[in-house]
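Usage

Read records sequentially. Each one opens with the input sequence:
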Amino acid sequence: MNLTNNNKIKIFTSLICIALLVTGCDVKQNLGGGESDNYTDGRVIGTIHGVVKAAHSGARLKDITVTTVVKGETYWVFTNDVGHYAITNLSPGNYELTFSGSDGYAIMSTEENIPTLQEVGVTNMATSEDFHYTTTQDMSLYSLSAGLTGTVYTKQDDENTTLAGAGVTVIANYEEAFSPSWFSAVTDSNGVYSFSNLPATETNIITMPFSDGTYDYDVALNEVGLLPGVIVTNDPIILQIATAEPFVLTNNFENDDFGLTESLTMTFSKTMDASSFDITLSSEYGNVAFESSWTNDITLTIDPLVTLQANTTYSLSLSGDSQDNNSYSDNDNFETLDGIEFISTNLERVDGVFDEFSVTSNIEIMFTMEVDLNNYNGYAALYDDEGGYLVSTSLSTDSTTLIIDPLYNLEPGQVYTLYWEVYSMIEGDYDDGVVNFVTMSDVTAPAQVTGFSRGAMADWNTTSLFFMWNTLNGADGYRIYAKDNGDNTDFIRIATYLSGDYVTGQSATVSLPSQFDYYDDDGIQTPFTGGTELTFQIVAYNDAGEGTYSASVTVGDETSPVVTSFNQSGTADNPDSTSTQSFTVDLSANEYLSGADPTFGFVESGGDTNYVLPNSSVSLDWDSDMMGGTFTVVVPAGKDGSGDEFFITNLKDASENASSDTVRVTLD
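and closes with the structure output:
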């Protein structure tokens, strides 16, 4: 099914339906297509994950809050011990991520997109299947530990430069997406300004317009690189006497909450030549028609001839001259206030299924703000393949949910199309959309699947698992879900299989998606390392929906590590009677190890039969990747350990599986 929600784009131009009551209006023609145009193949389930580090040290940051908005509600996760976060089960759309939670680091934000199936080029995927899309968004946070100081001067002419004195506002402005993105300081009587606790990265230093009572001075700009824990002294800022160029003193549109029916006003610093001005107002949808007028040649009013769209960025371009022939040119962007937006509907199950709606239920559509049910432009229209349905409408107690009541029951297993245009209490603000859904059929949902079991044991890097289960009568297919005891704590659908009615048992090999990975930056998918366990369930489905989920099957790393090399470097024979010497034995394994020392020792088998190296002579240093280590053995003066065997056993992997094998090396 296809759900589209083009907020504030009015696609119904000729439909007149009063009080959201529709009786036979032909909406489909105004949409430019028939019912088949509204289907989408498959469903995208998105995941955004990444690693949060300190920008300068590269240290991974724990307990950083990663916040975004999902379907109108704020959603947050925390980074784990290795700085990793993951936000799962996302629908297609653009998500703004905010990284915060540590007083020592600046708050930062970025955007990431989960594409639709069409955007990723998938056009032939069955509607019963899911498409898992994962994107990586790492973030470096800058510490709030940098300092900056400097002095501001004013220049009257080539021979006279003096301290600016008090009252010059200096802005430290950042191009990175910090919150806040700028900091201010004011000079003292000696023209000195000071900042502390700035983000430790490159910043633009800007002075605001300044007057000492005799002259106005130009704005100055330079760039400074800041370092954590260091107070940087900036180059002197020398302000030049300002030219006579005009500028805007006040306007009513730069707070990003502009009303949809308001007029833009701006007052200039001097009288302007109104006849010289070129003005353009536009958005992503094109140019906006308007009328403009001047008051006393100093205040400009721009009155849009159409209602602006909520939550939209507009661009205002101005160029012209003042009456004393100084030019003015500027491009300003501003945002309109937030308008009403679609959040969700009970036509959609939480996992994106639109084919199980009850024939006796009312349709509910939830919005971000109160609905104006009395707006005569609003409507709701319900259609099947034979025509329109009569409906009545009402609102929830808080007026944010539109309730649509078909005046007679819907039919089982029937495809329906719902159109709406809903207005908020903000003048000119509306939301419109269309959704296709299928009512629940008369078929009974399948029973619980039995005999669900797995095949061979898993290892640390197993990504394909073999499962078996008993065939169930009345099932069209089976869906397998998985979760783990790490970052993926909610069940995620990982596989769908059609039913084989001609056999008594079925089996399948399931490939785990990349989001089941313990380490995200080692280039290896390792679902089961570090003690991670995955829990699996299977459920049968048919036209009536899914049945009861099976008993869970839990899988973990049950395979012991294997030593891939155990080699000596150096000699165990120390003929020097006055000092010790050492040799090493390098250990490599096939997977990540726990860091617990294995059992080791020496066995006499040659060389000096009266001497065996003691265990106390051995030290072990693990490799940084924890897939091996080096034993360093100190041989006392004049002792000979050559010919003896050095052995290890009880080597444990990161999931604490211990090897029962004994690995030996005969010492040279």
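Summary fields computed downstream for this record:
- Confidence is low (pLDDT under 50) at residues 1-41.
- The two ends are 72 Å apart (CA to CA).
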